[in-house]
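Morning, I've got a small favour to ask if you have a moment. I'm working through a protein record and want to make sense of it properly. The fold is given in discrete form, as structure tokens running alongside the sequence. Can you walk me through what the tokens say about the fold? Thanks so much in advance, here it is:
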Amino acid sequence: MGVEMVERARVGKAPKRGTAYQREYSLCAVVFLLPMIFFLVVFVVWPILSSAQMSLFAWNGVSPTRQYVGFQNWSRLIGDRIFWSAFRNNLTVLVLSIVIQIPMGMALAVLVSNGGRWMVVFKTVCFLPMLMSSVAIGILFKYVYDPYFGVLTASLKAVGLSPLVRNWLGDPQIALYSVIAVVCWQFIPFYMILFEAGIAGIPVELHEAAIIDGATENQYFWHITLPLLWGTTRAAVSLALFGSLTYFDLVWVMTTGGPSGATELMATYMVKKAFLSTEVGYGSTVAFAMFLIVVLISGIAFFVTRRKESSPWSS
């Protein structure tokens, strides 16, 4: 039976619906999907449902009993100014991540794609931040941003720009932007590789035909390359959106949400409530609220950016 199925696939004959072949295909698909479904349920669906349930209780994480409080945690969350301040900080990270990371990643991708073989070394160097852990990057830039002995302070003083020296992570006015600069430095290489892969998928014949027709490189980029990268751009925006709304590790290492909550994000606030303040019920409320916000904003972004992509060769 297996040999006959392979032969049917080779000659392009799909098994008919309702036949033994179709049942065997379906069974095979289910068997291969079961491990993925298992891990998805255990590590994604169950924690989300558990957080939703835990948000209805008051629990310190240690006591064997939990007190049912209904929607008191949610009522508290609605009036929690720290949470909404953290949400605004997440939105700032989101906007600046999209505005900075994606254009710069695309520009580097175009540069690398058109630079020839010598750009391999440049691409490798640019990708190094992605090979470092966020914890290591956070510790590194805490020393870079040191207002007295840091590399940034020393560099500004060396070129006569001492008035620009600031307490980069201690000043509430600029701490968040200092952290965002590090986030962008870490993730721009990822978008560079993503867009480079998209550019590599564009047929060379399109570029040759455009040049023969008299188009400049700028015209080719704006009228051919950029429209054909729309799908890649949508994927990049989705990844930046999701990452910005759930970002945690680098901010926690560099500032722990300080100073005075200037860099507090929803994830750092959730960890503080659930583990440092031992308010597991309220921390679960913050976690589930994060999930709802991410789903809502992601859905809005998906429908706003959705458009029908037609083939460049269709009339």
